[in-house]
Structure formats: structure tokens, C-alpha cells
Amino acid sequence: MIYPGAQDYKINHYLNKGGRPNADGISLVPVINLMLGNDVVGAEIGVGHARTTCTLLQNCPNIKTLYAVDSYKPYADWLQWPLADTPVYEVDENEIFQVKLHAYENIRVSGYEHKVVKMEIDSNEAASQIEDSSLDFIFLDAQMTEEQMINDLNVWYPKLKIGGLMSGHDWGCPQVNIPVFEFRTKNKCNSNLSIFDSTFMWIKD
Description:
The protein is α/β, with parallel strands linked by helices. It is 31% helix and 22% strand. The chain has a seven-stranded mixed beta sheet, sandwiched between helices. A two-stranded antiparallel ribbon has the order 3-4. The chain is globular, with a radius of gyration of 16 Å.
């Protein structure tokens, strides 16, 4: 069965040069569809161009609401190995404004804008506006430093329901995978940790 809204032509806008969907969170699609039931409520922290946002919405018809959290402020990306004294790249005010415009246009033409709650605020402020144990899945993709990764794990995990999907991107960077290992140990997360296509995920137990 092909879900309405999951046809290939709808995701062509988000394909890379190799014809593969160019979305960091594409690995979440089968898990959301097969394991999380209906009327799914999720949060994506770090929206960027909204490729993951639109790919999830167009291929997971069971998503009822998706909180799209991104402050769209200038930033420097420090996720790299080996570690260095300079960031991988920096995004200035003009560049991030263009990214935001692209993201909001992607969402508008996706056909699912009505399911998106845009939260153009800091991650901590956004988390404070979400009730604990209310989300079915979380996708962390805003981290640019180890400190930010640690912070987002701590402020967002309480928002996830038991049985919900915790996930994020950039697993290959130690600024991401070390905090995840430490967080799971500290919080006694005993469910299996899955790693695929630079995306990590586990079910909250």
C-alpha cells in the first residue's frame, strides 16, 4: 500500500544529485510509519532548509503535528573530527535569512503547512513551551557544539512519551556520539541504540 502523500513525485524537490532524498532525518520515515501509531506529534530541533521537515510530512501521513524549531540566528559549526581550533564553517545573518526563506517556502509548497508549528526561537525556550511526555518523536539536528548537544538532550528528553522515538543527526562527530552515550548511561536508557546513515535513534523506556 502507498500512503496518500507518499508518491515519489512529491519528494523530487528534496533529491540530491544522486537521486537520493536529501534529508538528514529520512531514516525516521519507516519507524514513524510502522511504530508510532496515528495522530503522531513530533519535534524537529534544527530545521535548516526544512528538507527533513517536508520529507517526514510527505511520507508519514500519521503525523498530526510537527513542531519545527529553529531560531535562524547566525552560527558557527564546530562538529568535526579531528578537532580543530576553527569551525567547519560559519553562517552570517544574511545567509541564515536566505536559509529561513528557503525553509518556509519549502514548507509552504509541501502541501502540509497546516501540520507545522513554526517555532523561530531558542531551543530551550521552545522546550519550555512543550508539555512533558507529550511528543511521539524528537529529532535533534541543531547541535553545533558538544555543549549544545548535551543541553538539547537534557531539555528535550522529558518532552518525549514512554515508547516515543528519540533521534538525531551527525552521529559520526564525537561532539554528538559521546554526549549520547553518556546521556543514555546516566538516564539508564536500556533500549537498543540504532545507528544508520549518520542518524541515531532509540525508543524511550
